[in-house]
UniProtKB/TrEMBL annotation:
Name of this protein: GNAT family N-acetyltransferase
The organism's place on the tree of life at top rank: Bacteria
Keywords: Transferase
Lineage: Bacteria, Pseudomonadati, Pseudomonadota, Gammaproteobacteria, Pseudomonadales
Domain N-acetyltransferase: 7-179
Molecular function terms, GO-annotated: acyltransferase activity, transferring groups other than amino-acyl groups
Length: 234
């Protein structure tokens, strides 16, 4: 039996957080709840949004400063101790439910069971896990026991575990983030008079994508395969 090349831990260090945030920057188009182009005019603003939010939750998992129910675990390469994956789960006090806010795996460690091991660890602590992901990621979560049960903005909502009423989970109000406001001001300064049109176009893209994702989910719900349902999104 091959030796496992990674281990997982809930004991974060600042180095772990920095490396996980770098992963979030690399894969921000997968993580953000918008449809964005990797090198489009809003790419810097969107990647900053993901980085700032991921760092905020990882820091909260480390310090507990704000009293939120945040758990974070990282997968680390055995030979280098570098972070190759991370997952962030939010819950409510005394609840056995959680929401998977973010999860990412370094590209060269994919298809090695990293996400599966991280999620199995989270499953051992909770009776319900909810998440949302872009349609192209749905089969990966289905293979891990999750079911598609609706849509949220431009993503498909999925869940694992008991189907029951779920408590509200406390989250950060990122709209009040000084860092994010500074990034927004930099974006406005960079693009000047074009900024409003760029943001309007981004909004139009999201509205179109929301309808497409609803259609994807409906087709899956009607029995079509992922591949056939995705054909309408391309």
């Amino acid at each position: 039996m091959a030796q496992q090349l990674f281990s997982i831990t809930y004991s974060l260090t600042q180095r772990d957080i920095d490396q996980a945030v770098r992963l979030s920057k690399l894969y921000y188009t997968d993580l953000i709840q918008k449809l964005v182009k990797p090198y489009g005019p809003t790419s810097s603003l969107c990647s900053s949004q993901v980085e700032i939010e991921v760092r905020a939750y990882l820091e909260e998992a480390l310090t507990g400063f704000h009293g939120l129910c945040v758990e974070a675990l990282v997968a680390k390469e055995v030979s280098t101790n570098d972070v190759v994956g991370f997952a962030i789960a939010l819950s409510a006090p005394g609840s056995t439910d959680c929401g998977l806010n973010y999860a990412a795996v370094r590209k060269d460690f994919r298809r090695q069971g990293v996400l599966r091991v991280m999620l199995e660890s989270i499953k051992s602590k909770y009776s319900f896990i909810g998440l949302s992901c872009h349609p192209d990621k749905v089969p990966y979560y289905e293979a891990l026991g999750f079911r598609a049960d609706g849509t949220v903005f431009v993503q498909v909502s999925m869940s694992w575990g008991e189907d029951k009423p779920h408590p509200m989970m406390n989250t950060f109000d990122m709209g009040r983030s000084d860092e994010l406001q500074m990034c927004t001001q930099s974006f406005l300064k960079l693009h000047g008079a074009k900024a409003e049109a760029i943001m309007q176009n981004l909004g139009d893209v999201q509205i179109k994508r929301m309808e497409d994702v609803k259609a994807y989910y409906q087709r899956r719900n009607d029995g079509l395969s992922h591949e056939h349902a995705m054909a309408y999104l391309r």
